[in-house]
């Protein structure tokens, strides 16, 4: 059968996955046993104790921070390196983590704060463990009719509230050079080396084809997100985050921290207790037919969220699919107009306010950074410091919820915060002749 490994929201990797029997071990480099001759066996027996101590010392010192000896492929011309399985079974108080990547990138993983300072995760509330001393988690899982397992709010939430912050069980280099059998061998080894509880959770996650011979890859296909480490993309499986179902108008937004290897999810609008928590698997500004085609091709499901099936949701019963598509087209047109800075630009404050209204009417609260950003620049360009400050602050908050606090997110937030502090210092100040 044909099989495509993808990450949620972005097509990541195309692989021809052929149904096969139990994976056959490929040629590996690492912990390989050798047959001893009789003479070698006598000598080995006399040195048994010393050998055992040496292996123990080697494991403790040579592989740090890994708890298992890395097992590697042969050199792969397609990526100019070999790939190895690296596991730390004690990671984050025994949660565990396995990584399938190159030796060079493994060194970059090992240098990250979670491997150097165990408290770097717990001190930030990452991977929280339920206890009598901590409040109830803001989420719980339950079966949802027509969707399977989903995540719901255990209490009322407000925009900006943290919902989840977890590290992955598995990260895998986005290669396309290994055969299906070989990839399954290494990914299954990576999963098997996790602590028992984590391994069982991983294997219990949603699957697309339910083929036992490729179970490790099947879980990746159905649940993985993309994260960049060492300049290369990896697929990451975060079990808790995998329980978020999709909605084209989600009530939550996620971002990933490469430094902390953490998937964060925050509320983007008020959420009622027991309301389902959702994120978006796809870009928001696609028309209904295009979105459905994407979901069918990529995830093999048909979306029935309020934006795709307004007639089946009471709060949207007065809106039709045609209304939604028209609003989406208007959003695209308004953003194009507001992005024009030529002398004949038709950009205006009225269009900026209309853009924000349409985003909210479409339930696109998770993507308001674009709308707020256009509004901040529009107000600034006509010399309205008050309007510029208002929307720059909102754009900074929305950018943080969408991009996080590293790299792109940090740059965007800094720019908007700069305008919020002093609009007159930004290059857009009074750059248009349009009147308020």
From TrEMBL:
It comes from the Eukaryota. CDD domains: SET_SMYD. Pfam families: SET. SMART domains: SET. Residues 116-138 are annotated as: Disordered. InterPro entries: SET_dom, SET_dom_sf, SET_domain_protein. Gene3D superfamilies: SET domain (2.170.270.10). Residues 1-20 form the signal peptide. Residues 137-282 form the SET domain. Keywords: Signal. This is SET domain-containing protein.
């Amino acid at each position: 059968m044909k099989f495509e490994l993808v990450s949620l929201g972005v097509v990541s990797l195309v692989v021809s996955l052929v149904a096969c029997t139990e994976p056959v071990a490929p040629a590996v480099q690492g912990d390989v046993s050798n047959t001893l001759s009789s003479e070698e066996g006598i000598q080995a027996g006399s040195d048994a104790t010393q050998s055992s101590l040496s292996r123990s010392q080697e494991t403790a010192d040579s592989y740090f921070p890994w708890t298992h000896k890395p097992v590697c492929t042969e050199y792969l011309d397609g990526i100019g390196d070999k790939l190895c399985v690296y596991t730390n079974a004690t990671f984050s108080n025994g949660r565990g983590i396995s990584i399938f990547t190159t030796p060079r990138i493994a060194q970059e993983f090992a240098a990250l704060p979670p491997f150097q300072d165990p408290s770097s995760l717990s001190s930030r509330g990452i991977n929280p463990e339920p206890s009598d001393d901590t409040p109830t988690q803001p989420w719980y899982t339950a079966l949802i009719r027509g969707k399977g397992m989903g995540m719901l709010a255990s209490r009322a939430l407000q925009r900006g509230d943290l919902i989840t912050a977890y590290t992955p069980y598995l990260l895998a280099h986005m290669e396309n050079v290994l055969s299906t059998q070989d990839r399954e061998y290494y990914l299954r080894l990576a999963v098997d080396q996790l602590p028992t509880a984590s391994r069982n959770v991983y294997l219990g996650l949603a699957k697309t084809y339910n083929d036992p011979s490729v179970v490790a890859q099947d879980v990746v296909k159905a649940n993985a997100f993309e994260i960049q480490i060492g300049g290369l993309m990896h697929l990451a499986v975060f079990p808790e985050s995998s329980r978020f179902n999709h909605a084209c108008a989600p009530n939550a937004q996620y971002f990933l921290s490469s430094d902390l290897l953490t998937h964060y999810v925050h509320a983007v609008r008020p959420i009622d207790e027991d309301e389902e928590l959702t994120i978006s698997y796809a870009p928001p500004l696609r028309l209904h037919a295009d979105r459905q085609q994407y979901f069918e091709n990529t995830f093999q499901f048909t979306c029935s969220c309020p934006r795709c099936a307004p007639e089946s949701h009471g709060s949207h019963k007065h809106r039709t699919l045609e209304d939604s598509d028209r609003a989406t087209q208007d959003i695209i047109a308004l953003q194009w107009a507001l992005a024009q800075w030529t002398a004949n630009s038709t950009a205006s404050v009225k269009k900026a306010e209309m853009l924000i209204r349409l985003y909210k009417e479409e339930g696109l609260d998770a993507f308001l950074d674009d709308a707020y950003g256009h509004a901040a620049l529009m107000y600034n360009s006509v010399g309205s410091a008050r309007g510029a400050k208002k929307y720059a602050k909102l754009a900074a908050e929305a950018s943080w919820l969408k991009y996080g606090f590293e790299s792109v997110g940090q740059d965007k937030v800094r720019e908007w915060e700069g305008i919020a502090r002093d609009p007159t210092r930004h290059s857009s100040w009074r750059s248009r002749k349009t009147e308020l």
